[in-house]
Amino acid sequence: MTDVKNELNNEAEIKQRLHELALAKKTAAAKSSRVQIKAMAEVHELSTDELDSLKILHAGMQNRQVLNAFRELRVKLLQKSKGENFICLVSSLCERGGGGSYVATNLAAAFALDKTKTSVLVDCDLYAPSIDTMLNIDASHGITDYLDDDELDVQDIIYASGVPRMRVVPIGSNRERGAEHFSSERMSEFIAAMKARYSDRFIVIDAPPILNSAETRILADLCDMAVLVLPYGKTTMEQVQAGVDVVDKSKLAGIVFNN
Ligand SMILES: Nc1ncnc2c1ncn2[C@@H]1O[C@H](COP(=O)(O)OP(=O)(O)OP(=O)(O)O)[C@@H](O)[C@H]1O
Ligand SMILES: [Mg+2]
């Protein structure tokens, strides 16, 4: 009787072991295919026409005013950080569609224009993510997956953007938990890891509009600096004041007038 029981236990153990092995194999295969996808994406560099249609700045663009504005913003932020790398939150001061993602993307692109620097644009807008539309790959993992899955490494959620030296972290597929995502210890770890790994890496967070967004309040606390985007003619003074009040005064790096 005992032997039969042992045998049964063994059989159960073997089954369990086989299951674990199959799972490990599956994870390894998924990981290696992700690495391959990322390696392929690295090859496709966006053409100047593609950049123009995506409204992403580039050194040879016709509209020098836009290019210079973002270069100036880059200089100002670097002055504020005394040349150190940083994490900068970008958020707009109106309800929706104020240009927050436009400014965040172009700020990241402006850092990447400098050949001695790299940038990472992190999509933290759970409700209106923007990076996915820019990526021409199926980004299976993003920040929300990373925050819930300890098995995922920072490297697993960073994708090539098609802009040299600029990387992106998409929002991912696991968006139900809302603001709770960003208040986790793992989010603080992510922020610290992103900044610490390369001293020439500048991180831009594309956050939801600052008014009435619990996520943006949490993210503003985690970032080193914040840039607020003021869409011309779409915001009242009260809204501007309310938005400015959310950000710690020492972190507010500037307000960009978006026309
Ligand atoms: N300065 C600009 N020049 C050209 N297009 C712009 C400019 N600012 C914003 N846009 C365009 O306006 C639209 C809305 O801008 P964007 O998505 O950046 O706003 P947002 O604040 O991120 O909106 P959401 O609240 O949905 O996240 C986009 O199509 C964007 O490309
Ligand atoms: Mg946006």
From TrEMBL:
Keywords: ATP-binding, Kinase, Nucleotide-binding, Transferase
Record has Transferase as a keyword: yes
GO cellular component term of the entry, any: plasma membrane
A GO MF label: protein tyrosine kinase activity
ATP-binding among keywords: yes
Descriptive protein name: CpsD/CapB family tyrosine-protein kinase
Source organism of the structure: Dasania phycosphaerae
Lineage of producing organism: Bacteria, Pseudomonadati, Pseudomonadota, Gammaproteobacteria, Cellvibrionales
